Amino acid sequence: RIRQEETIRRRLHNTIQELRGNIRVFCRVRPVSSSANSTKKEATTAMIQYPDVEGRQIEFAHSTETATGSQIDKAYPFTFDRVFQPSSTQGDVFEEISQLVQSALDGYNVCIFAYGQTGSGKTHTMEGPLNASSESRGMIPRSVLQIYENAKALEAKGWTYTMEGQYVEIYNETVNDLLGNDGLDSGGGKKHEIRHGANGKTTVTDITTVVLTSAEKVTALLKKAAHNRSVGSTQMNERSSRSHCVFTLRLAGKNSITDESSEGVLNLIDLAGSERLSQSGATGDRLRETQAINKSLSCLGDVIYAIANKDPHVPYRNSKLTYLLQNSLGGNSKTLMFVNISPLKSNFNETLCSLRFATKVNSCTIGTATKRAVK
Ligand code: ADP
Ligand code: MG
């Protein structure tokens, strides 16, 4: 009964949010890793509380151990559209985004981002483990499955849909094809340019496009992308935390009875790690990487901020990522950002930075923030 009321309340909240604007922020706290090699220090968690029953608040606190227990030195409260505790399952999270995913089938352009430091659960949220059982599958495979099922159900009403998938990586402000066969940054690979047509359609030149004829096919795509990323790089983990991965689903529908048509795009984006990278000491490639990540993440914040603020000029062109997503950000489009955070004490400062970034993105959507650039 309470659960039901909660669900209704949350739906209502989502509807209100819809009226307020098309940008939402969800916070997800990952569980403490149970792996044996996590050291005792790492396993120490920060003090995190979830004060409200609606699941929208999180209080993050710095504490010190005293003889009588922990003492809170300073607490930092944050409010988001939704906060997912470590116990939340992939299914719980998907339930909250399924309407948004559905809207791509209805002809909207949608972007879902995962923002957070390396190790905070971005890839787990978006892709999930690659050999995942159905319960632990991430948002990408779940979205494809849902769209596939909904498209099938709409056949009875005359709709037929084609579903095309692309998966690109933006590394050092260069677009790479994660589904191609040409290696990633070996130098011999194809150059991919971003083009925006007059019809509002975005294309990337020479990119691999896969027609998704079944929901299962997406797992093979994710595996291929993971393989490409690993051979394109000498240090796989480094690479995945230093590039943005954009999975794009294009959905074109035609109705044979009413002659209507619809075109929607769903973008699911696993962002580069948000940890503040120091430029001191970095040289050459590493310095370039660092600058590219810092720039593109702050540019993303600026773009979302400008859209929510209804600024006449939105600086899409300041980074490859925002330029690629230009037609799926702003206007009628819908945006959701997951801010993924770690519960570990050792990550306290980075977590605070992530929560602050997300708050700026979030508070501007309800028009309470003063005008300030998002860093
Ligand atoms: P990121 O992509 O942000 O660097 P990952 O998604 O790779 O982080 O997560 C780091 C580790 O934590 C992985 O081993 C992942 O499986 C685990 N993990 C993250 N989030 C969860 C979660 N909600 N439930 C279980 N394990 C998780
Ligand atoms: Mg990752």
From TrEMBL:
<comment type="similarity">
    <text>Belongs to the TRAFAC class myosin-kinesin ATPase superfamily. Kinesin family. KIN-14 subfamily.</text>
</comment>
<feature type="domain" description="Kinesin motor">
    <location>
        <begin position="22"/>
        <end position="364"/>
    </location>
</feature>
<protein>
    <recommendedName>
        <fullName>Kinesin-like protein</fullName>
    </recommendedName>
</protein>
<feature type="binding site">
    <location>
        <begin position="116"/>
        <end position="123"/>
    </location>
    <ligand>
        <name>ATP</name>
    </ligand>
</feature>
